[in-house]
Design a protein that fits this description.
The longest helix has 52 residues, at 11-62. A two-stranded antiparallel ribbon has the order 1-2. It is an all-alpha fold and 214 residues long. It is 80% helix and 2% strand. It has one domain (8-213).
């Protein structure tokens, strides 16, 4: 069966799409929370961080743009996180809850592999459109199994380290070290994922302008 040619966007193009989403959905809420914490206290910071995420989603809806799955996950997580933080009045509870949630998300990634429906195959659509014939290819499916396992390990290990930092450092030091570690580890995992996918496509000759047949 013949398929149209498919080319994976170049890394700079992927980064131009992925970095703003990472900043908007992860780094900005953290910056908003920390700024508001020093100005209006814990409760105000909780509302500010949650408001940032929902305003971002509303802005996309008003402009009739698709709300990425990663942003929807962030909204659910930050709502539960803020509700628990407001209820307990504890900054430590506020920060430890998403780390536990991230560990649970890592477990979901592992479960999706077990169910042969690797979650990364779906989330990847937030960053690059993949034709159905690419997603159906056996080697591509195997790649998404491996990369889902990689991200499960990254999520679980990173959050476990963050919990240790939270219990042994001040809130300010925790925020700084957590941000540095998150950017470094996430950036490395993204680079490995993109490199691995390009390698798979190259081996299958799916990233060439020639017609594809299977």
């Amino acid at each position: 069966m013949d398929h149209p040619p498919f080319a994976l966007p170049h890394l700079p193009s992927l980064l131009r799409q992925a970095v703003p989403m990472l900043v908007e959905g992860v780094l900005a809420p953290l910056a908003v929370f920390y700024a508001a914490l020093s100005l209006v206290g814990l409760n105000g910071a909780l509302w500010a961080a949650m408001g940032w995420v929902y305003l971002g989603m509303l802005w996309r809806v008003v402009r009739r743009k698709r709300v990425p799955g990663t942003m929807a996950l962030t909204a659910v997580a930050i709502t539960a996180q803020a509700a628990l933080g407001l209820w307990t009045g504890s900054a430590i509870v506020y920060f430890i809850q998403p780390e536990v949630g991230t560990i649970c998300l890592g477990m979901v990634f592992l479960a999706s592999v077990r169910l042969r429906r690797p979650l990364l195959a779906k989330l990847a659509q937030d960053f690059v459109h993949l034709p159905s014939f690419v997603l159906r290819h056996e080697r591509v499916r195997q790649f998404f199994v491996r990369v889902t396992l990689l991200w499960a390990f990254v999520l679980i290990a990173n959050s476990a380290g963050n919990i240790w930092l939270l219990m042994n450092q001040s809130i300010g030091s925790f925020l700084l070290l957590r941000t540095i570690a998150m950017v470094a580890v996430t950036g490395l995992a993204i680079a490995v994922s993109v490199w691995g996918f390009r390698r798979v496509l190259h081996r299958l000759h799916l990233d060439t302008p020639a017609a594809i047949s299977t």
